[in-house]
Model the fold of this input.
Amino acid sequence: MISPGLWVPLVCLQLTPLCVPAEPDPTGPASLTVASSLAPAPPMPGSVGADQGDLSAALRSLVLPGWGQRVQGRGHWWAFPVLELGAVAGAVDGHVGGARLRDRYRDLAWTAARAPLLDPTDAREDGPWEYYERMARWTTSGRFNLSSDPSRLVPEEDPSTYNGTIWVLARQLYLPDSEAEPDPSAPGFEQALDYYRQRAVPETMRWNWSTSPEALEPFRRMIDRSDDRFRRTSQFIGVIFLNHFISATDAWLGARSGTLQSLPITLDANAFPMNHRGDWTLWVRISPRNPRSMH
Done:
């Protein structure tokens, strides 16, 4: 016997940190709900129905959700394109919002923590996502090379800086017995320098929030919001793939009407507003319509 409670964690797709496997509070904000039965249904008179073939109907719905059901003449075909449009709109909105916030926190990092340390003629160079995550955790990167001679590398030694921490880790890995300033001729010294070169922040990318400490918290918040937007985009893309799969499976089951009457399946999709910023929560659930028959 398959317990109906097992279906929710297996197929419930979270689009927000909270996935609610129950109906929204009717007293809460207005919501949009789409429910569709995946149980096989006989085709309407005059429709192609099962004559179209199992694979043909499934492929149609795999390409365009709801297409196979429309050809079969099934009344709930519209639920799939509605869900598709909502998921596409959510993915586009999440990507655009995330990119806009990414541009904003990059601009803030440049003006508040990076540009004051560089020559006015130096061109701006933006780093990858990991670089800005480090900027959010460390007040300053420290120097890359403490030597005035560019041909000689002297790593940052201050452990309160990001580069200083990298050098401490390099010494622990390759110079574990060196407590004082390591001898350049000691075994493992070159390996430690190579480790530092590959991971430390270069001079052109160094930062220091000490000159504008009030900008650090807004910078962190923008990074968190941007990450949340991009994460939401990935989740909506997951809904799109899931919608194609469910629609194709539903069309295949519909073409085989009468063979799976013991497995009635219900698809529920619900969207409702989260907050005043216009963010919405969307959850999708598949569950047995009559659990007592699941033996």
About this structure: The chain has two domains: 4-83+247-293, 96-225. Residues 1-41, 43-52, 258-263 have pLDDT under 50 and may be disordered. The chain is about 45% helix and 10% strand. The longest strand covers residues 265-273.
